[in-house]
């Protein structure tokens, strides 16, 4: 018989109904983009308007399965690179690799709280059950808390 999830696991991902950009200013943010950093649709447009830095992101030359990062004030903005072109669809494998890359950056930079939308599940059409399972798996041995916002 499987043991019940530890208190840590139960608290790892919290769900909030509301606007992602109302999260605490101390939380780092995360969302998914393509290698070309187009950000022309969905929540990515809001990230582009709010944080800019497109050239800064492009200069990092990150590939699918990696993460590009902007530092804004005292927090990081994570751009999970889950596909090559804006017209492509991401894979769960690239999502997992990008999450692993983000975790490594978080651990190396003392990040303890990340807020995000239901990554990969809007225009990219991944299934939230699978993506949330990846989040649980990737972050299970950390103290990083994730808050997922949905409108």
From TrEMBL:
Q: Which PANTHER family match?
A: ADP-RIBOSE GLYCOHYDROLASE OARD1, PROTEIN C6ORF130
**GO CC terms on record?**
chromosome; nucleolus; nucleoplasm
Give yes or no: UniProt keyword Hydrolase.
Answer: yes
Function noted in UniProt? ADP-ribose glycohydrolase that hydrolyzes ADP-ribose and acts on different substrates, such as proteins ADP-ribosylated on glutamate and O-acetyl-ADP-D-ribose. Specifically acts as a glutamate mono-ADP-ribosylhydrolase by mediating the removal of mono-ADP-ribose attached to glutamate residues on proteins. Does not act on poly-ADP-ribosylated proteins: the poly-ADP-ribose chain of poly-ADP-ribosylated glutamate residues must by hydrolyzed into mono-ADP-ribosylated glutamate by PARG to become a substrate for OARD1.
Q: Which domain of life is it from?
A: Eukaryota
Annotated ranges, domain Macro:
1-151
Give the InterPro entries listed for this entry: ADP-ribose_metab_enzymes, Macro_dom, Macro_dom-like
Question: Which BP terms in the Gene Ontology apply to this protein?
Answer: peptidyl-glutamate ADP-deribosylation
Q: Where in the cell is it found?
A: Chromosome; Nucleus, Nucleolus; Nucleus, Nucleoplasm
Which organism does this record belong to? Mauremys mutica
What keywords sit in the KW lines?
Acetylation, Chromosome, Hydrolase, Nucleus
Give the catalysed reaction(s), semicolon-separated.
alpha-NAD(+) + H2O = ADP-D-ribose + nicotinamide + H(+)
Q: Per its record, how is this protein called by name?
A: ADP-ribose glycohydrolase OARD1
């Amino acid at each position: 018989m499987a043991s019940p999830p530890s208190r840590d696991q139960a608290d790892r991902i919290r769900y909030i109904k509301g606007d992602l950009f109302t999260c605490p200013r101390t939380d780092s943010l995360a969302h998914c983009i393509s290698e070309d950093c187009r950000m022309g649709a969905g929540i990515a447009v809001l990230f582009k308007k709010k944080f800019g830095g497109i050239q800064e992101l492009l200069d990092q030359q990150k590939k699918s399965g990696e993460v590009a990062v902007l530092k804004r004030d005292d927090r990081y903005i994570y751009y999970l690179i889950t596909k090559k072109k804006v017209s492509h669809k991401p894979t769960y494998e690239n999502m997992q690799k990008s999450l692993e890359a983000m975790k490594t950056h978080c651990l190396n930079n003392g990040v303890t709280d990340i807020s995000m939308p239901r990554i990969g599940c809007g225009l990219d059409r991944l299934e939230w059950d699978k993506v949330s399972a990846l989040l649980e798996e990737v972050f299970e041995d950390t103290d990083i808390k994730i808050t997922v916002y949905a409108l």
